């Protein structure tokens, strides 16, 4: 059983969620992520491969001295592909100038740029990215199935959470950026110290102050470590939520099969194809009329304003000639379109010893009546045809 179709979402609601996330990023980092040069670059990307090419260039710049590309980039493929697919699914539901997924990818690039000169950030970033990779791999399975209201809400929240994680990490790493430079200065490593000796008088007298600054930086880094730990806990929480959604989808799919086997309705897809024109005499006009009616109502249902169920009484098929076949088919079709209708059918199943007893015709009919008079539901169109 699925929830309401994705079209039921309010575009303005999506806009508000993502704009709030973008503003939160700006408040944390001091930068408008949508106006970052990297955002303009990513905006022109029209495929996951194009996005990956841009992000790998940022990884190469960040990791040039360490050559640990594999650990930094292996998480990119599942993350980019899944976010790109879900962003495409939202489609016109988000009236923003930038795709939310591309803004998140910009946040990743900005984080790498902020971390380029901070040695201590390298392992921390890899840990964060590997955690993100783990649950996005699991989410990849849902890019192949129609999205429901509940699942889409989870995806939007995860996209916002990932951007928030990038914002926090960027802010904290920027605050600790001086550590690597200070350590080089104290140890007298390379040409940087030579340059300081040439332009700064009395550099020896400043070294004592540098040691004091190192102690301050170390304290701040400890604070960063504690906050990064909090980020890790946030990622774990998101992971648990994804696992719960995964388990729920499996449970619902399994129960859907059980209900279908229990009341054994005729195949509604065959009924639909027949009602759209098959088996009518040429020239009667009935085929065209049936097809037009069904398709017009389908448009209303796809917009989230109604539910529809159809049945074709086929005089050539004994399985499609009685009222029980009609009612059982309508029950399954309606329960596929609404959680409320699904719960009503589940109650019928539970009151018949969880499927060990077949419902009689009166019980099936009463179940259908309950669906038809349910409060708070959209109108129901029931289309019957015969031939």
TrEMBL record:
<dbReference type="Pfam" id="PF17109">
    <property type="entry name" value="Goodbye"/>
</dbReference>
<keyword id="KW-0677">Repeat</keyword>
<feature type="domain" description="Fungal STAND N-terminal Goodbye">
    <location>
        <begin position="19"/>
        <end position="142"/>
    </location>
</feature>
<dbReference type="InterPro" id="IPR031350">
    <property type="entry name" value="Goodbye_dom"/>
</dbReference>
<protein>
    <recommendedName>
        <fullName>Fungal STAND N-terminal Goodbye domain-containing protein</fullName>
    </recommendedName>
</protein>
<dbReference type="Pfam" id="PF24883">
    <property type="entry name" value="NPHP3_N"/>
</dbReference>
<feature type="domain" description="Nephrocystin 3-like N-terminal">
    <location>
        <begin position="279"/>
        <end position="385"/>
    </location>
</feature>
<dbReference type="InterPro" id="IPR056884">
    <property type="entry name" value="NPHP3-like_N"/>
</dbReference>
């Amino acid at each position: 059983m699925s929830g309401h179709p994705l079209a039921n979402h309010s575009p303005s609601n999506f806009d508000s969620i993502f704009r709030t996330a973008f503003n939160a990023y700006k408040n944390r980092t001091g930068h408008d992520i949508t106006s970052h040069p990297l955002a303009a670059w990513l905006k022109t990307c029209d495929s996951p491969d194009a996005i990956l090419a841009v992000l790998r260039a940022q990884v190469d710049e960040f990791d040039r001295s360490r050559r640990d590309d594999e650990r930094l980039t292996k998480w990119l493929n599942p993350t980019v592909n899944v976010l790109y697919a879900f962003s495409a699914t939202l489609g016109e539901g988000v009236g923003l100038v930038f795709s939310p997924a591309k803004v998140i990818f910009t946040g990743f690039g900005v984080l790498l740029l902020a971390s380029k000169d901070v040695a201590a950030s390298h392992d921390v970033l890899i840990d964060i990215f590997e955690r993100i990779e783990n649950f996005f791999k699991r989410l990849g399975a849902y890019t192949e199935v129609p999205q429901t209201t509940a699942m889409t809400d989870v995806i939007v929240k995860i996209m916002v959470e990932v951007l928030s994680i990038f914002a926090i990490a960027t802010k904290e790493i920027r605050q600790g950026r001086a550590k690597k430079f200070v350590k080089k200065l104290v140890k007298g490593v390379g040409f940087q110290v030579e340059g300081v000796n040439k332009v700064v008088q009395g550099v020896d007298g400043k070294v004592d102050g540098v040691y004091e600054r190192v102690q301050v930086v170390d304290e701040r880094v400890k604070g960063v470590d504690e906050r990064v730990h909090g980020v890790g806990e946030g990622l774990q929480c998101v992971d648990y939520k994804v696992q719960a959604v995964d388990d729920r989808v499996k449970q619902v799919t399994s129960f859907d099969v059980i209900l279908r086997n229990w009341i054994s309705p005729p195949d509604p897809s065959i009924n639909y194809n027949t009602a759209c024109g098959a088996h009518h005499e040429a020239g009667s006009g009935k085929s065209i009329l049936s097809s037009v009616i069904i398709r017009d109502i389908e448009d209303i249902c796809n917009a989230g304003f109604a539910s529809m169920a159809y049945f074709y009484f086929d005089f050539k098929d004994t399985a499609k000639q009685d009222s029980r076949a009609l009612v059982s088919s309508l029950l399954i079709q309606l329960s596929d379109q609404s959680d409320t209708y699904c719960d009503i059918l589940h109650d019928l199943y539970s009151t018949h010893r969880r499927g060990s007893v077949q419902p009689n015709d009166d019980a099936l009919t009463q179940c259908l009546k309950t669906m038809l008079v349910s409060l708070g539901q959209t109108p129901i169109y029931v289309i019957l045809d015969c031939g």
